[in-house]
């Protein structure tokens, strides 16, 4: 159907265009695009508020993030100087050719990475968060049960269980869930078959908002890849593929110092993982491109972080010679590649895999390693975790604290990685279904608390941090949905 | 009432901890071969001696061994192919719908072994086939060896001629039939995951051939090649690319001792369902079960169904990029060496579950028992096919296919009668 018809009348043009959009599916696409923007960008601030407020409204948080960034950059620069490696360098033609040939098997490359070390690890970041203080808030009292006994000592508002029950109402006991009601003992007629039917319908309608609502009850494995793409509004158009190819050619032409950090990270984490080692090569293909993707810079508008700036050699301080480094503004840390790994189970086409990861990063993962007051930011998640534990398992919390095993010391790494590499993949995907469904990372804190609750009996018997770590070392047998359901809906509050 | 049973006396000539730990945990007593024993986990060499005409001896009712006397009908590459070809011809002769062929003359349901020739008898047939597909690659495998030993790839006739010229004899078979080779069409379009080639190792326990009763271990695994797969002809000699045997991969530069290049079958299922969809994944797993059962049915008539015997086979299967499974070979003595910690646990549990089925209650066996263990002792095994059950038209034994949780078996109705519908077994 086209509008190139002689019958088109000026009077009815407005209606005709609306009809055309509906019929051709463009209305839906526009709706999805708008919905996507609404999900990603924060609500408009007060007109008088400066742009920093969209990044982070609290001044002390901004300051802390700024100092943290300075530290990271200093660490990167000193590694650079020590090893006499430039931050960026054009590759000689022979090297370019070789890399192009090896593009699909970079994992077989064995560059000497012994001198490289990750710029930081989650535990370094935790130390920074522990020292965060709000200068306007004087808490001179001794720690007691009336205030917070955990490691995070900033007064952010976090939800309690009644509020969480409301927010996560679709996880309730009387509502069907994938991850619970699709186990072998349950006949599929009870829930699973119908849920799959509804999922297929949602995909047929191509409605992002409906998909987001749907996945709160979990995605059927066969529909997950498409549902996630629908929610994140990724369609892998020719121009997207072209963009990815462009990034690939940037990788071929220039060598970045962060590339070595990426190699090191993959070799240390994903290559040793029972589930993800198979996809090692895909991880390089995604992450090397990611660090060169300047479109990622857009997310800094609503992130508390600021991309590091570097200067062309010899032009320190001269703004015309300033560049963001790396071009994406994101410096990978130890474990970063684990954000990508689970997606390899869903997408085997590199450009689609790339776009899905990029979107997941700029919507969710960036909040896990930057200091902000956002409810899905890592600081809030830590505080939520500690508060839930202290409120509902006070005996356990107190015991662990007494033996020098502050619970957050153990659960921090789970949350920073969104549990990737700790849970079995099928369970992890069920968890990430709910992250997408609720457009929030709070579920990570709830799950962390639920895990402690689950292993409380064993934890009460340990007498050291090492022993507590051992009790919680292996999460690979956990089933996340029953844990979450019991913690939220079957715990006496 | 309870009979005060004595302790089971065991012997083994395979010094592996996964075995010995299992015997010891049952409180069984180790004895020597020449003493009175009840249970002997023997190597294939030993079973040959026990049942040989010269050195063999009769087993008594309270003695059980872990191999069938002529297991090689299934586990030698040339005999397996021969038996399957014979089985197909028989079915064709009796007009069975299972032996149906398509318009190209290929069996629709029974084409699961790559085209194989046994030189020297088939040499001319092989040359004819080779010339029909001059760009094809063929794999030469010694009939009696394991662990990837002696295997090589060829893509030119001259490569065999060269090989046969080099060897002392001018024919493919020397005096001892151990040096016999098979030539199989090499699957050069394997399904790749993460760009890597892999094969499937599945464990199948057979307690009796007539009636056929077999169990499949739910925890099979995929073995990945450490080096990227390339069909390029220059890499034909690089065994790391082409052979997935752990014995070979272990020596590659990239071999990892944490995961050992292995994936669980449930990971495979999750990946395939997520990227290819549920129906084709279920179909694939159904086909895998199908081909295992058909291979056992093919050798059942010629197997010495000695009641003292059971056997745990290691099936090697390759999936091509059209999601068709191919039976590569069956191992009588699957490796009990553990390459990683996970591996050790898996093999320990495998032996444990095997013993629970083969030696009921861990008590002194009576080989006259009906070999029908109760469901509770199966552990990680699932009934793959029970001929007696199938023929008696018993209650529906359908097991639903669930991602990540079962191997997707859909029941074990007899296939001899009904219409062959590959997607479900009803």
UniProtKB/TrEMBL annotation, chain A:
<dbReference type="InterPro" id="IPR042507">
    <property type="entry name" value="TBC1D19"/>
</dbReference>
<dbReference type="Pfam" id="PF00566">
    <property type="entry name" value="RabGAP-TBC"/>
</dbReference>
<feature type="domain" description="Rab-GAP TBC">
    <location>
        <begin position="218"/>
        <end position="439"/>
    </location>
</feature>
<dbReference type="InterPro" id="IPR000195">
    <property type="entry name" value="Rab-GAP-TBC_dom"/>
</dbReference>
<dbReference type="InterPro" id="IPR035969">
    <property type="entry name" value="Rab-GAP_TBC_sf"/>
</dbReference>
<protein>
    <submittedName>
        <fullName>TBC1 domain family member 19</fullName>
    </submittedName>
</protein>
From TrEMBL, chain B:
<keyword id="KW-0067">ATP-binding</keyword>
<dbReference type="GO" id="GO:0015631">
    <property type="term" value="F:tubulin binding"/>
</dbReference>
<dbReference type="GO" id="GO:0070740">
    <property type="term" value="F:tubulin-glutamic acid ligase activity"/>
</dbReference>
<keyword id="KW-0547">Nucleotide-binding</keyword>
<keyword id="KW-0969">Cilium</keyword>
<keyword id="KW-0963">Cytoplasm</keyword>
<comment type="subunit">
    <text>Part of the neuronal tubulin polyglutamylase complex which contains TPGS1, TPGS2, TTLL1, LRRC49 and NICN1. Interacts with PCM1, CSTPP1 and LRRC49.</text>
</comment>
<protein>
    <recommendedName>
        <fullName>Polyglutamylase complex subunit TTLL1</fullName>
    </recommendedName>
</protein>
<keyword id="KW-0966">Cell projection</keyword>
<comment type="similarity">
    <text>Belongs to the tubulin polyglutamylase family.</text>
</comment>
<dbReference type="GO" id="GO:0036064">
    <property type="term" value="C:ciliary basal body"/>
</dbReference>
<dbReference type="Pfam" id="PF03133">
    <property type="entry name" value="TTL"/>
</dbReference>
<keyword id="KW-0493">Microtubule</keyword>
<feature type="region of interest" description="Disordered">
    <location>
        <begin position="387"/>
        <end position="426"/>
    </location>
</feature>
<dbReference type="GO" id="GO:0000226">
    <property type="term" value="P:microtubule cytoskeleton organization"/>
</dbReference>
<dbReference type="GO" id="GO:0005524">
    <property type="term" value="F:ATP binding"/>
</dbReference>
<keyword id="KW-0206">Cytoskeleton</keyword>
<keyword id="KW-0436">Ligase</keyword>
<dbReference type="InterPro" id="IPR004344">
    <property type="entry name" value="TTL/TTLL_fam"/>
</dbReference>
<dbReference type="GO" id="GO:0005874">
    <property type="term" value="C:microtubule"/>
</dbReference>
């Amino acid at each position: 159907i086209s509008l190139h018809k002689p019958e088109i009348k000026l009077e009815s043009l407005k209606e005709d265009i609306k009809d055309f959009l509906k019929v051709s599916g463009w209305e839906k696409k526009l709706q999805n695009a708008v919905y996507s923007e609404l999900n990603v960008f924060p609500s408009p601030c007060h007109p008088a508020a400066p742009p920093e407020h969209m990044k982070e409204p609290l001044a002390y948080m901004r300051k802390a993030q700024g100092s943290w960034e300075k530290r990271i950059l200093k660490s990167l620069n000193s590694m650079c100087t020590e090893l006499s490696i430039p931050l960026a360098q054009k590759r000689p033609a022979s090297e370019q050719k070789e890399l192009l040939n090896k593009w699909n098997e970079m994992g077989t490359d064995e560059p000497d990475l012994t001198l490289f070390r990750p710029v930081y690890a989650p535990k370094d970041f935790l130390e920074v968060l522990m020292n965060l203080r709000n200068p306007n808030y004087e808490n001179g009292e001794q720690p007691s049960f009336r205030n917070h006994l955990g490691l995070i000592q900033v007064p952010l508002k976090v939800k309690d269980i009644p509020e969480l029950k409301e927010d996560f109402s679709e996880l309730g006991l009387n509502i069907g869930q994938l991850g619970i009601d699709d186990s072998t003992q349950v006949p599929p007629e009870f829930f699973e078959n119908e849920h799959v039917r509804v999922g297929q319908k949602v995909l047929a309608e191509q409605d992002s908002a409906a998909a987001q609502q749907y996945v709160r009850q979990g995605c059927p494995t066969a529909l997950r890849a498409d549902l996630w793409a629908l929610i994140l509004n990724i369609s892998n158009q020719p121009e997207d593929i072209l963009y990815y190819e462009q990034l690939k050619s940037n990788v071929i032409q220039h060598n970045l110092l962060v590339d070595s950090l990426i190699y090191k990270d993959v070799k240390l984490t994903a290559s040793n993982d029972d589930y993800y080692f198979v996809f090692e090569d895909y991880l390089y293909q995604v992450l090397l491109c990611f660090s060169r993707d300047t479109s990622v810079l857009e997310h800094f508008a609503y992130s508390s972080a600021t991309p590091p700036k570097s200067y062309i050699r010899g032009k320190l301080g001269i703004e015309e010679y300033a560049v963001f480094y790396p071009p994406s503004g994101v410096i990978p840390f130890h474990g970063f590649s684990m954000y990508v790994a689970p997606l390899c189970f869903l997408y085997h086409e590199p450009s689609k895999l790339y776009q899905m990861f990029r979107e997941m990063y700029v919507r969710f993962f960036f909040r896990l390693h930057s200091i902000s007051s956002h409810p899905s930011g890592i600081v809030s998640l830590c505080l939520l975790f500690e508060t839930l534990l202290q409120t509902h398992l006070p005996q356990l919390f107190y015991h662990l604290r007494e033996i020098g095993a502050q619970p957050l010391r153990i659960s921090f790494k789970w949350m920073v990685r969104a549990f990737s590499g700790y849970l079995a993949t099928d369970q992890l995907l069920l968890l990430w279904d709910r992250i997408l469904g609720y457009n929030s990372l709070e579920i990570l804190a709830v799950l962390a608390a639920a895990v402690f609750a689950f292993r409380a009996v064993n934890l009460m018997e340990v007498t050291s941090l090492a022993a507590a770590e051992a009790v919680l070392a292996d999460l690979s047998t956990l089933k996340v949905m029953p844990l979450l359901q019991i913690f939220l809906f079957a715990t006496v509050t | 009432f309870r009979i005060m049973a004595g302790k089971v006396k065991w012997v083994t000539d395979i010094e592996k901890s996964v075995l010995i730990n299992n015997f010891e945990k049952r409180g069984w007593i180790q004895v020597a071969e020449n003493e009175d024993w009840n249970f002997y986990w023997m190597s294939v060499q030993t079973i040959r001696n026990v049942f040989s005409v010269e050195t063999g001896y009769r087993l008594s009712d309270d003695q059980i061994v872990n191999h069938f006397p002529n297991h090689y009908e299934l586990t030698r590459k040339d005999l397996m192919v021969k038996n399957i070809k014979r089985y197909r011809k028989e079915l064709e002769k009796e007009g069975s719908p299972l032996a149906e062929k398509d318009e190209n003359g290929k069996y629709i349901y029974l084409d699961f072994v790559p085209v194989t020739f046994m030189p020297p008898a088939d040499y001319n047939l092989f040359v004819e086939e080779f010339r029909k597909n001059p760009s094809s690659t063929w794999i030469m495998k010694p009939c009696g060896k394991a662990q990837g030993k002696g295997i090589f790839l060829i893509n030119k006739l001259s490569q065999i001629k060269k090989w046969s010229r080099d060897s002392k004899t001018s024919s493919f078979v020397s005096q001892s039939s151990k040096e016999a080779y098979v030539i199989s069409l090499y699957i050069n379009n394997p399904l790749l995951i993460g760009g890597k080639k892999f094969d499937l190792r599945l464990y199948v326990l057979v307690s009796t051939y007539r009636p056929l009763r077999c169990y499949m271990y739910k925890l099979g695994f995929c073995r990945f090649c450490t080096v990227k797969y390339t069909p390029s002809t220059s890499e034909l000699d690089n065994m790391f690319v082409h052979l997935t045997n752990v014995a070979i991969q272990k020596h590659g530069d990239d071999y990892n001792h944490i995961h050992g290049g292995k994936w669980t079958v449930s990971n495979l299922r999750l990946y395939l369902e997520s990227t290819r969809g549920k129906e084709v994944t279920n179909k694939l797993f159904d086909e895998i079960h199908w081909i295992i059962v058909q291979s056992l049915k093919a050798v059942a008539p010629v197997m010495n169904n000695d009641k003292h015997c059971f056997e745990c086979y290691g099936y090697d299967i390759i999936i091509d990029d059209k999601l068709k499974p191919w039976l590569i070979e069956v191992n009588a003595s699957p490796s009990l060496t553990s390459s990683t910690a996970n591996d050790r646990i898996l093999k320990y549990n495998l032996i444990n579950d095997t013993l629970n089925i083969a030696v009921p209650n861990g008590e002194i066996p009576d080989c006259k028992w009906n070999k029908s263990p109760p469901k509770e002792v199966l552990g990680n095994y699932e009934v793959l096919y029970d001929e007696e059950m199938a023929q008696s038209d018993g209650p529906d034994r359908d097991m639903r296919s669930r991602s990540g949780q079962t191997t997707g078996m859909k029941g074990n109705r007899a296939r001899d009668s009904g219409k062959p519908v590959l997607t479900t077994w009803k």
